[in-house]
Amino acid sequence: MYRTLDAGLILATVERLQARIRERFPQAGLNKVCAEVAQVARETDDRCRWIERPHLLLRGGVVLALALLVLSVVGVVLAFAGLEARITFPELIQVLEAGLNDLVLVGAAIFFLVTLELRIKRSRALQGLHELRALAHVVDMHQLTKDPMRLRVEGDDTESSPRRDLSPFELTRYLDYCAEMLSLVGKTAALYAQHLDDSVVLSAVTEIEQLTSGLSVKIWQKVASTRNAGSGGG
């Protein structure tokens, strides 16, 4: 029960985070970002269910194509075996060389057909992971201008300076929400690795987890600095 990620619980956590952001920062763009994370989490659940299902129609088509391919090869071999004409050694070498080339092509065709379902599922998973990677960077963009140093160092703003109207407590909550959202993006990505045993997908999931973890570390450094500024610490 507790050995796998539950997509429903992840979605519920994202929706609860969205409600917390909406209640504290109703006008903030971060609220809309969290809504997008919730939507992607729903789509991820649907994709993972689709990935996990065996696609019988596709498998039937692959089996039929393989059967036709094998029958074609057998037919060629039988036709060659039924030839009564005697061939010379050089001709035999040419026939064997052509046969080996055809065998390689047949092997490649068989590999293509056998791995077709996996490659289709991998493509769907990578598409979803690309969206999650982009969302992680969007979350990071929203916390870039939240600079705790402005709480400790006074100075005049320029016309292009971002608004800095958050109290130390509000800034801490804002950054905390960003860190939680990044963690949930990473957990959502991990659902793909849980439902599809594929090295390419696993590598992409690991990359997103490292990305969200690294961005969270930067945010928590800001949170620590904000708390020090709020308490008057150095």
Comma- or semicolon-separated keywords:
single chain, 234 residues, mainly alpha, 2 domains, 7 helices, 78% helix
H-E string: HHHHHHH
Largest sheet: none
Contiguous runs where pLDDT drops below 50 for at least 5 residues: none
Outline type? elongated
Category from helices, strands and their pairing: mainly alpha
Q: Domains counted in the coordinates: how many?
A: 2
Please give the radius of gyration in angstroms. Answer: 29 Å
**Helix residue percentage:** over 70%
Mean pLDDT level: 81
**SS elements, strand count:** 0
Strand content: under 5%
> How many helical elements?
7
Q: Whole-Å distance between the termini?
A: 46 Å
Compact summary:
The protein has helices at residues 7-24, 29-52, 56-81, 89-114, 116-143, 168-195, 199-231.
Can you characterise this structure?
- The protein is an all-alpha fold and 234 residues long.
- It folds into two domains: 7-52 and 122-151 and 164-227; 56-116.
- It contains seven helices and no strands.
- It has helices spanning 7-24, 29-52, 56-81, 89-114, 116-143, 168-195, 199-231.
- Helix 2 (29-52) packs antiparallel against helix 5 and helix 6 (168-195) runs antiparallel to helix 7.
- The longest helix is centred in the last third of the chain and has 33 residues, at 199-231.
- The radius of gyration is 29 Å and the shape is elongated.
- The two termini are 46 Å apart.
